[in-house]
Amino acid sequence: MALRDNLIPPPGLPRRLATQNLLFGVGAGTFLTGSAVFFTRVVGLRPHEIGIGLSLAAAIALATAVPLSALTDRFGAHRMWTGGVVAQGLLFAAWPFARGFWSFLLVIACLELVATVGQAGRNVYLIEALDPETRVRTQAFSRSWLNVGWSLGAGLAALALAIDTVPAYYTLVLLNSALLLANAYFISRLPQVPRAAAGTARRRVGAVFADRPFLAVTAVCAVLTCYMTVLMEVAPLWLLHRTDAPKWWLGVMTVTNTLMATTLQVAVTRGAHTVGGAAAASRRAGLVAALGCPVYLLTGATSGVLTMVLLVVATILLTMAELWHSAGSWTFMAELPPADRRGEYIGAFRMGGSAQSMIAPASLIALAVTSGGWGWFAIAGLFLGAALLIGPVARQAARSREQLPSVPAPVPA
């Protein structure tokens, strides 16, 4: 029963939101698993063009995250979430017509922009629709079901890759387009929620950058988010170049991460619905991530089965960091922004993650792999520093939030 309670969300809005994320995961898993082949075989790109295009699109999204997310504060979360997903669905239907670098850049950049709007709308909708404890658990269920959908989508993509024809690759993007449009209809049927009243002295968009306590939380959380770069990029390269583990062991590590994210996310959210609880969860995330780094280093000096076991241990530690940090960041995004500026603040918070995605891969790969291994201690130091800082900066941000002019918050639906 306990396992079922951690896998099946309660009926009503939590279950509907989890189902929506499952559909999204199927489409995203289908496309992303086969996207590199689609871009090379169908769009006609070379590998370096894919990398340049993705980096430019990420930079555009980073620069526009705050003003685009602030649209949610003006027009409402439900409307912007629905509109963002509709736009994504239509843009994916345009992929079969893309040929060459510039059309690729146009579509991928537009997708990043509308995804920013849709994601901000979704986050604010959850904040306004659910009370804090239910919200964090619902986000945990949604993330678990997203992983299930992602796995199903990856299986569908594997089938298309096995068929290896242009029509099969068209199916990758058109299936995601259809699922996104179905998702938009599903979202449009969700209940409307009350919106926060506008502040009496509404500030210009971008005032979040004057909120230093909130930006400090954002910066520390961005450092903690490096767990993803370690799991997805640094660890695979370390295995291939610095250990004697077989290449197929990467699949075991991926399955370990997926199973943990699917079955444990809800359990680790307990108590994380307050700012203090979120800080404690984030602190645990930093500590276990720091502990995982020397374990990775150790695998460079071991051999055989011991190396393989230690790589799984390190994966478990970094996955626990992922689960705890996710729970904490959901609460920070919900509880620290002013009620009438949640979209703008969520956009700023996401900028921290985007900056990490742009800076961390090259930096952490150089520290760990290129250095020969000593850089793992530097990475562990980053995680440890973030673990020590998150409590004080979160408390300061909470105190700063209490001093802002009071704006009535909507009652959860």
UniProtKB/TrEMBL annotation:
Gene3D superfamilies, per database record: MFS general substrate transporter like domains (1.20.1250.20)
Species of the source: Catellatospora chokoriensis
Keyword Transmembrane: yes
Molecular function in Gene Ontology: transmembrane transporter activity
Domain of life according to the entry: Bacteria
Bilayer disposition of the protein: Multi-pass membrane protein
Cellular compartments per GO CC: plasma membrane
SUPFAM superfamilies: MFS general substrate transporter (SSF103473)
Localization terms from the record: Cell membrane
InterPro entries: MFS (IPR011701), MFS_trans_sf (IPR036259), MFS_Transporters (IPR050171)
Protein keywords: Cell membrane, Membrane, Transmembrane, Transmembrane helix, Transport
Main localization, broad class: membrane
The protein, known as: MFS transporter
Membrane-spanning ranges: 21-44, 50-68, 145-163, 169-188, 209-230, 250-269, 281-299, 374-394
UniProt KW Nucleotide-binding keyword: no
